[in-house]
Amino acid sequence: MVFKLLSLDPRNYKDAPTEGIRRVLAHYRGAPVSRDEPLDISDVESVRMGTTVATNALLELQGERVAFLTTKGFRDLLVIGNQARPHIFDLSIHKLQNLYERVVEIDERVTMEEFLENPEKQPIDIESDPELVKGLTGEPVRVLKKPDLEVVASQLSDLKAEGFKSRTICFIHSYLYPNHENVVAELARSMGFDVSVSSELQPTIKMVSRGNAANADAYLSPLIRRYVRDFGSGFKGGLDAIASKLLFMQSDGGLCLWQNFSGLLAILSGPAGGVIGFGKSCYDPETKMPVIGFDMGGTSTDVSRFSGTYDHVFETETAEVTLQTPQLDINTVAAGGGSILHWKIGLFAIGPDSAGAHPGPVCYRKGGPLTVTDANLFLGRLRPEYFPSIFGPKENEPLDYDAAAAAFHSLTEKINSEEGKSFTPEEIASGFLRVANESMSRPIRSLTEGRGIRTSDHVLATFGGAGGQHSCDVAEALGVERVVINRISPILSAYGMALADLTHEIQRPKAAELSTLSDTQLGEEFKVLTDEATATLAAQGFSDEQIEHELFLNLRYKGTNSSLMIRKPEGSWNFTRQFVEHHEEEFGFVLDRDILVEDIRVRALGKTPDSNVASVSQALKSVETRLVESSRRASTTKLYTSGKWHEVDLFKLEDLAPAERIVGPAIILDQTQTIMIQPSWTATVLPRHLLLDKNAISQGSVHEAVELTTETDEVDPIQLSVFGHRFMSIAEQMGRSLQMTSVSVNIKERLDYSCAIFSPTGGLVANAPHIPCHLGAMSYAVAYQAERWGNSLRPGDVLVSNHLAAGGSHLPDVTVISPVIDEETNEVLFWTASRAHHADIGGISAGSMPPHSKEIWQEGASFLSFKLVDGGRFDEEDLAEIMLKKPASYPGSSGTRTWNDNVSDLKAQIAANQKGIRLIQDSIKEYGLPTVQKYILGIQNNAEKVVRNLLRQVHDQFGGLPLEAEDQMDDGSKLKLKIRINREEGSAVFDFAGISREMYGNLNAPRTITFSAIIYVLRSLVKEDIPLNQGCLAPINVIIPSGTIISPSLGAATVGGNVETSQRVTDVVLRAFQAAAASQGTCNNLTFGYEGEMVDGKAKSGFGYYETIAGGAGAGPSWEGQSGVHVHMTNTRITDPESLERDGCVREIEFRRDLHVSVLSERRTVPPYGLAGGEPGALGENVWVRHDEYGTREINLGGKNSCEMKKGDRIIIRSPGGGAYGAL
């Protein structure tokens, strides 16, 4: 029995789930069931539900009032978060408001006694020191301060008096030593509080993620409990009578009893059912071909993947809240049936805004905007006569085809007028659908290609209300040749809940090298957890025969930060082989390093009986297919596809028999969905599925209508919009690959890297929104190599460069450049490149960011143009000469202190470039080289056009007068800019005449940094979401006098120019445009470490750590400044305090061993300026808390300094604020 209800229909029923149960009972009992009395479900085996209550509350910020209890000194932990701003081109920097209302600092503290990077670990005698205790993993933990429970009780009483009922507790290192959280939680519960405890919810490292997850649980759980209680009141005897019959779907794809359902477990409750549904019903265990789930709804589309097992992730982001909890790996894109269609800046765009249910699309008759649904209706993919008359102000009218058609005619006139084209309304509507399909394909490519798995080697399982209308098109865009649609696909989430298992998970932290654990030891540790999990499920009525266990170890290579959850192989304890194979599949390489165990996990399943549905292979074997007879059709209808109108057959699914085949174009309807069969596809009806197969000899292509225009030089804005998505998708997948395959914290955790694709001459085509200071600079690096090497490179060659003469930014930023070569002509067709900040490349200071360098050689190894890979051979020998030996030949200088990491990260960059090459080649194969090259030029021209229009607007705003700005560095060096705009051309000259000379220090910035600052500001001033590429700089002429601080000589030190001067130049450009007050104007660079050495002719690694620290963002005409974020030229993350401890936005670090420490910063003497009468921002300060024979001293380090800190010394970095805008 299948039917759907409106989620809200207060005129007819109070609660949709209860109403659904009432109708099912009435159907099976054969008698009416009253809405006015509680339902009797004594004859019901179980009620299985999912809900969006938690998700909606999180999106709408409608949760419970929460007080956040955390370790003293960490009150702003979640305000700062990872310090990155959500959208790099948004000057107003809107951050999600915190889920908690109050913070209470508890005076408690523990710290780790040992540290990961210690190459000379010594055994620690825990018994000899009363402050030392064993953590859950056996590691020594030092208890610095126990909580005073009398004081805590007083703090809790104050909260109770203020009306708080819900509490979150998250203390530092509680995943390892939960005792302090436990005693405070016990006290709070005894006082009547609801408490969410971070170590109970997810005992894993990363305090920020764990704290966010605990706050989300405290914020949402009271709503979930009220929802469950209200739902239970609709049944005789209430929840007590329901007992174990009521089960809820959790985010991890398992069911739980209603008593155990909480806010954190409910966030993906609805979508999780769909993943279970298509995994159980659409995956074919005979062919073992993995399945992509495509769940297209009204406002968004969820995509996921199933390959015989369910993929889980343990850290995700929902509504900009980072959550640490097991969830099915579901990616969401803001494109669905209700997504609004936009025509702007010469491009077609879909969403992300949605028309919702009210007012809804144009065809809903409530004055709504044009949407994807309107396009489908206008082109004949939806038939109004098969929809109920529930539209219009009185909800009693049919869908309005005429209104949708009129809206498309009006939009077509606008587009033709602006572009000088002669599009038909049908071409415009189908163009929007093509862009929508490409937009929805992007997350699928990330889920597959981004992990090294070909998208085309999958089956597409479509479901959701709108999935059938787009299934063939999305499959075509992905190169997928088979689509499987369950007959009940619009309610597949509910079906999945019926098939799901009851689950119970237990996870415990572990700290050991995998090689030291015997099979017996592992078996014993797993048995403790499996016994506990089994007891939990047995108490819920499951027998031993019904309970299965999945055993996992969370593993990573030593010295890396990417862990993989590895399932125990059948009949073996060989986790090592499983890990190595999985690592190579996921990341493309393996390492010769020890494997560490971080967590041990058991997932227990109380099994639901299998549905015994025949697989697709079995169903096909059991029937002899035949073409459907025309008499089976319900009617004929007009359908626009492949550039023309067709008279096509329309079938009702209920009228079709298994084994019948329908050749497209055609439409198939059932009670809850519309399925469109494209001309090049054939549908086969099976007992439980509808199978769509791409014809072996295609009758046409989805691209056919558009490709007619590629024979001319004319650029089609539809195709241009599609290629915009495609190029950005390639850059994004390169970035994901680099993050996943790198080993250093700088790249993997802090995300200090950028990936991009370039034209044959080095012009930027697409740059994923990574690090702004790389944006303009990388194209000059590629252009240098393109000119130097010409067409002399071969497939498989890879270049590396970091020198400022070759488009470098500063030496730690190493750029790996790979050509895409036509093997027949040996011409370079494109380039792919990745730039990443390496933690150390040698020089006079650990971390290769010396604050007092005067010459370029003091900053480490330099590459002008080095062929790192020659015909597929990685040249490690010459690389070692450049990175290890040459820097060490200079006085007081060292080779790289992180050689192994450097090599691994360079290989990760090569792998990212190679991914880009393959994806570009796929596009060339799909569209042809001339088409791809034409649309690269079209994308650049589009960006150029937008920037020229922006400059004309600025010209008018300032009455044609030049724009001028001036500022100075902390040392007095002058920054000066005059901008002259030519309105007729829409061009501008950026003249930096009068800027200070090159300095005898390291704040000199290569010319490319100024181009990065300019392109960043121009892109930030454009309000629309334009593609960022070389076209943005085409209208700009930049004049920079040689021998100055932003155009220094080749021997000048530049390590600070990229991170400090770049920020100051950006502020000056923004000041000229009067766009925003100054931001903190610095990256607050902090490095520390110790030297490596050569032992027996081999490099023994030292240690180098580097990070940049957030501060204040300047205010603007319509926004207030922001605190605790990175600004402008950078957007790197900060290391979690449990990996490297910190106090609030004041970064305070105590060192547990002797280290060399350097700080490189600005805005310590010249404050960030205000605008329009606004006050300047606060100055920053760097302080050394030094313990020596003279006592404890606080010493001002100034903006740039190095020192040798001893064990117990601390550094305190107080970052600058942002300037104000406007007088009070």
From TrEMBL:
Residues 520-693 form the Acetophenone carboxylase-like C-terminal domain. PANTHER family: 5-OXOPROLINASE, 5-OXOPROLINASE RELATED. One of its GO terms (cellular component) is cytosol. Belongs to the oxoprolinase family. Residues 2-191 form the Hydantoinase/oxoprolinase N-terminal domain. This is Hydantoinase B/oxoprolinase. Residues 716-1142, 1143-1223 form the Hydantoinase B/oxoprolinase domain. InterPro entries: ACX-like_C, Hydant_A_N, Hydantoinase_A, Hydantoinase_B, Oxoprolinase-like. Residues 210-505 form the Hydantoinase A/oxoprolinase domain. It holds the Pfam family Hydantoinase_A. Transmembrane segments: none annotated. One of its GO terms (biological process) is glutathione metabolic process. It comes from the Eukaryota. GO terms for molecular function: 5-oxoprolinase (ATP-hydrolyzing) activity.
